[in-house]
Amino acid sequence: MKLKRITVLFSLFLFCFAAFAEFSIVNPVPGTWANKQTLLLVLPEGEIAYYSVNGSDPLVSGFAYDDPVVIDVAGDVEIRIVSIDENGRRTQKSVSYTVTEHSREEDTKSFFYTFLNSPVYEYVPGSKIAIPSSFNYAIGEEDGEGAVIYLPAKTLSLSSDCSVSRYVPLTLTDGNSFWRGIIHVSSAYGIINERSVPFSVENWTTISFNDKTLIYSIDGGWWRPAGDPVEIDRYESHTIRWQSAAFEAGNPIYSFELPPRAVLVEDRRADGSVVYSATQSGTYKISVSSRNKDNLGVKNTLSPGLFSEMCIDVFEGDSVSEKLTFSLYADNVYQGDLSVRYRIDRRPPAPPALIPSVSGFWIRAPLDINIVSEKKSRIYCAVSSPLELESDFSAPVPSKDFFDSVALEKYTEFKGNILRIAANPERPVYNKISVYAQDAAGNKSIPSEYSAVIDVCNYYFDSGSNPTLADGTKERPFTSFEQFEFTRFLPRFINLHVRGKLVMPSKRIVLPANCKISGSDGACLVFAPETSFDLRVSSLEIENCAITKTSTDRKEAKSLFSLENAILSLDNCEIAALFEDSGSVVQSASSIVLFKNTGLVSQARSYSSLISASDTRISVFNCRVSAVAKTAVAFSLHGGHFELRSSSCKTVGSMGRIAELFGCGCRMTDNSFAGEISLSRTSQAVWTDPSVKIFEDSNNKTQGF
């Protein structure tokens, strides 16, 4: 028995072509690159290639292609390639790309010099490639849909026992420029230690006896000469014996144990690599079968190195899928082939696309987020707890760092594709979501994040701001009331924040929703002659505002506020209304009017009142009230309820009263009534008809009536 031991390089190039496939251009690929590119071809066995740069005929003035080579040309580049196979058949291809060289920062020059200084970067499994933190990277060939997945920088490595040799494209980007280079992975070493025996095994079950000078016996059976192949069952062990055909006493008898047929075992490690071995691993060794040439179409012959186990690995971010045939050896004697189709997928899916139903950061409506991801991937979503923000004009807008610090809740699988984010009907709310996709191999995409402040009710006005950027948010407030569209869809409640002077449009303003106007920094609403608020089945609350109306226009509105089945509330306001002929600050029917801590002056030539109402509940607390006209009546009410407390009221004119009440209830306490009446000094400050029910009337002081 003779043994020989030879060490060889096991090289498995994972580029998949048919046996007679055309050559492939691995690199360059079309695009704009910041570095000069390497020409890398994969040629079928027996094929040669020639190449030229920028238009010339490769067979006339080209170069023979032997190994990867840097094309030392910048700008627009066209490479033409012609290959010739063993039969003289020619195949032509070309590739065009652009090189715009870009300088690198000092802290990355060392990496780029090492990585791009040679046609290929030689990599030994087990070593590390540390990508600079300022870059994203994409590795390997494009996926089946042509998408390139860029990942944050990290340190790349393969298992130290990786048994694969291949070329791997690596693309780096800083967000503006793109660098592309080629990594060459050098394979591990296999050992051939084939045992010389006088028989051969084909396809596991066929035994051929080749040496006619020997006789053979299987499992203790009759001795037989070499001849036709023998079929045996490989589900159990067998013993093959042989000796010289010159059957003599004392002849040495040799034997070999055939173990049961092997089964390939696939072990997926935690790092993503795959290790193949055979059952009864102490007996069997594996190698790559020469049959892989038909599958891989590589230019090098595959070496039959023997391994106890073979590791296949890819870099994080890469993916490889292939059919592979192994040759199995028992005690270093070939037994048969076994095939597997493996897939090592360490490439995460593309980050989900988050498409909001409304664009922008400050949103005026509930949001529907359409989540678009790769087919067959699962979606996992994390949301923040809704964070209510201060709505006051004086409260500063939170910084980006503040928003970034908002924590997300736990990721959970999301079954649908539309994520609904509700709105708070009264407060601005910040919402943040994060979504990632997970494929069947367990790879997780980079999370996609989306955040927005949903504020359906708060609008801001400041006439001193830039009108070209105005959108009604606190950062970019409206500069005029006309910029606010009352006709669009509005929630049931809106809060208008006013800073400084705001000129109101000269028209009737119909409020379709309940509204609050909050003033700050000397807020003043300037009413034009025809300006009025028309409230129908709605409410209006105004606080911390001055309201002025001056008019010499006979087409003017007869009131500042017109109510029907509505509510009007004024708190800490100052109102001064000047009408040309006659007018009332408030005209009301079947409504509620509430004044607190407010000063009101109404002046007209003929008739002036502050509130002229029917079937209305009027409540006035701690206010200063003045009506000035030939006929001046501060409050006029037909039906409803009138309540006046802790207020000072004055009328000035030829005739006047503080209040005229008809058929209503009345409560008046702690008030002072003053009149400057020129025609009648005997009139009453408060006049009531017999149907009025007075529930309270105390501590009211009267002067001038």
UniProtKB/TrEMBL annotation:
InterPro entries assigned: GH29D-like_dom (IPR059177)
Domain GH29D-like beta-sandwich: from-to ranges: 28-91
Signal peptide: 1-21
Keyword tags: Signal
Pfam families, per the entry: CHB_HEX_C_1 (PF13290)
Name of the featured protein: Chitobiase/beta-hexosaminidase C-terminal domain-containing protein
